[in-house]
Amino acid sequence: MDILRIATAGSVDDGKSTLIGRLLFETNSITKDKIEALKTASQRKGLDFVDLSLLTDGLIAEREQGITIDVAHIYFNTPNRKYIIADTPGHFEYTRNMVTGASNASVSIILIDARHGVSEQTKRHFYISSLLRIKNVIVAVNKMDLANYEESRFEEIRKDFFELEEKVRFEGQEVNFIPISSLYGENIVTKSEKMDWYKGEPLLTLLETVKIEALDGQSHAFRFPVQFVIRPKTDEFHDFRGYAGKVSSGFIKPGDLIEALPSKQISKIKSILKAETSLEIANPGESVVLTLEDDIDISRGDMIVKVGEGPEIVKSFSAQVCWMDSNPLVAGKNYLIQHGTNRQKTKVSGIGAVMNVEIMEESSDSQDLKLNQIGIVDFRFAGFVYPDKYEVNPANGAFIIIDEFSNNTVGVGFVI
Fold first, then answer.
1. Model pTM?
2. How far is Cα 246 from Cα 289, in angstroms, rounded to an integer?
3. From the CB of residue 13, how many other CB atoms can be counted at a distance below 10 Å?
4. Of all residues in the chain, what percent carry a pLDDT higher than 70?
5. Which of 12, 18, 146, 263 has a Cα-to-Cα distance from 286 of 20 to 30 A?
6. If phi over 0 gives left and psi between -120 and 50 gives alpha, with beta otherwise, what is residue 183?
7. For range 160-183, the mean pLDDT
8. Beta-strand relationship, 303-306 and 224-230
9. Do 314-415 and 224-306 have the same topology in CATH?
């Protein structure tokens, strides 16, 4: 059974938590005792309906304020698929949480309040979905019950979103629109009689049938960041030398010719070990130990690739960066870059542009990148790095930025 990873996004009070609660309820993913607890909690709040949003707003601060702050991961399944939902915040100040929550998603569900229409946060979330190369986007116009289930209001919002889509959508991205009411379950699992003008499928049907883009990187070039060199100090394994790590993309088999980066030394895969088992193939996501026919100089931070498939070895690159720290990123400052297992000291050599999400235009005169802003940044490194462009190979195209003094993660980047 395959797994569909979903990221939900939207402005505050657009109904993300209620939608997820409704999906859990309709797929019988809630135990009876939890339903009773929800009824009790809803009555305590003076509500005449079951508040399904309480299922996902897990933090005390979230329940008290009625907002989503942290990324919550919710699991449920149907007879056809397993689902993992990342419920991401709607507030601007938690944009960084939305980026991290959506980073592994195959589908992005962007909610829009039917009363308010396309907002700045709608634009921000669609932009981030496109930045992360999420190929399946579902725009769910929620709270249609408060718009009298009118087709004209739905079409008006779809037209406004289409203007945004033309500026942001990348080639191959599929965008579907659906009118829903999470509170009353309209167009969630079954087609709504109150919106019989909508000829598409209900939300769950879309999720059941959407084609999952392979996040495992099977079709991408082989990338193996070396985490550790294994040299046992025992008589039995006196001459053993293995290279431990996780296959980030592609696959490898015994006998394949490989190249070590950055030295570019060539050898052949002798064996692939997983615990005490020898494997005939190592696939994306598997943590294994590779042994080679030759003793070559490889250490932590190096990368093993197949001969002829290696990325460019560089000491500088440009990237889209989402800044996550209260202290702004400024040109000329030093940071640490963690790309896979490779950590390098870097200097910000320039800030190319900062995206103004409200008008979907880039400003090229910015001197810094502030908290939750997204912009193009140029980096220069003390040593070698070997990334792919994010759109070509996401597993080897993303990195994090670390403050060299506090050791805090202050940004996330995508190589362009």
1. 0.84
2. 9
3. 18
4. 94
5. 263
6. alpha
7. 93
8. antiparallel
9. yes
